[in-house]
Design brief:
The structure is a homodimer. The first copy, chain A, is an alpha/beta fold. Chain A contains 9 helices and 5 strands; from the N terminus they run βαβαβαβαβααααα. The termini of chain A are far apart. The first copy, chain A, binds a DNA duplex through helix 6 and helix 8.
DNA sequence: AGCAGACCGATACCAAGGTATGGATCGGTT
DNA sequence: AACCGATCCATACCTTGGTATCGGTCTGCT
């Protein structure tokens, strides 16, 4: 797969470096119809799927896609502003990377957006390659975040089936206590501790002490 | 200790909420002599020690204090700019919280500073209470960062005395392998593995498997 | 040459971990 | 009433972990 680059003008045609997770989407929120279309075409030209919304309400109504995504967000819009949406997403627990795009920004607003976790803040008119670079970086980040979160979520899901007593025992294990010490603290016998411990290990699918401890650490018990 | 607040004007006189670590310092870098003095007086009035420098070079020459600190930094100065200093500190590994203070900021510069990890970006003229709040927050953060880093550094220091073979064994332990499995992988006997393992445990001051695993995780072996 | 330290091994012993099997109570559900 | 799951206890058995004490080789440094 030989790639010849002849001119700067062709840059937007080059494939995205790492094809990313393959399935991802760029969410565009802007009240300007023409601009939405321009952005959509830009992303399409490099093979990035995108969805466009004319307002924050429209996006929220649609809901967030369950795949790696990032948001290209206009700061000033009729109705809820970009900052509002950012705050809304944060309290919803949706940690989609947000890239602000605006023509009329002042420094305090910029600071507020960045402190709230915005990935970048680009002025309109935007340079296409800069936007594409930022977007692909954002998609990559979101993909990685999702991967690590999935692993965590799986452990948490397994942990839901733990009985109170089992978590008591696990806490002791994580603290490095001996079975007999755990037994003393809980007022039960060492044998029972072993029972709970092996039961907990089975539920968390841990075949080693090391794995068990790491999972308990992750659960924050 | 009853505190009566009668007027907004007295706000700058109220003591800092959490006395912080007791010993901390605010680093002021600004080329304006009067402004440095004004800031210094402001911090003094609330009991915050501060040091002022007329340029980034002056600060670098002096070196960073080894206690919780934060930096109040002018963006535009003759010689190296605030952004330069921020980058310089970053590559030095000094993670002092930086608060930018400037009268002439544009959005791209703000974004750059925030992406580079600035804690805040306040416009001149600055509201005193806002600056004080930001500074005390920064000092608190730096204090917490130092605490956790100290614990980590201690483990890393201890880990330096580990022999290559001992780290090999620890890697196996962290992966949840049995001693005999580690022995097989390393091509040695189980007895030798036990030896290295106990030796490593002694060096890392771990009195339990759980503790050992957590420390190995921290070391990123 | 002498020494320190990393590295490897063995035997022996005891403590701890882990599993299997069997049995018990209690509270809540169907 | 029958059942299930959480909790608890016990005996027995084997594996693993951990330590001590003894021994050895090799490298690098003084």
């Amino acid at each position: 797969m030989l790639e010849v680059r002849v001119a700067q003008a062709n840059d937007r045609m080059r494939p995205v470096e790492a094809p990313l997770p393959g399935d991802c989407v760029v969410l565009i929120v802007d009240d300007d119809d023409d601009f939405r279309e321009t952005l959509g075409d830009l992303f399409t030209s490099v093979g990035l799927p995108s969805m466009a919304f004319p307002s924050t309400a429209a996006l929220l109504k649609n809901g967030l896609p369950d795949k790696p995504s990032c948001m290209v967000l206009d700061l000033r819009m009729p109705g809820a502003s970009g900052l509002d949406l950012q705050a809304r997403l944060a309290e919803m627990g949706a940690r989609v990377p947000v890239i602000f795009l605006t023509g009329y920004a002042d420094v305090p607003t910029t600071v507020r957006a960045m402190k709230a976790g915005a990935l970048d803040f680009l002025p309109k008119p935007v340079r296409e390659q800069e936007l594409l670079d930022t977007v692909t970086d954002a998609l990559r980040r979101d993909h990685e975040r999702r991967c690590s979160e999935d692993a965590d979520a799986e452990v948490r899901r397994l942990a839901q089936s733990l009985t109170p007593r089992e978590t008591d025992v696990l806490r002791g294990v994580s603290r490095g206590l001996l079975n007999k010490q755990i037994a003393f603290e809980l007022g039960i016998t060492e044998i029972t501790v072993k029972m709970h411990r092996s039961s907990a290990g089975r539920k968390l699918r841990s075949n080693s002490v090391a794995d068990l401890i790491k999972k308990v650490e992750l659960l924050g018990l």
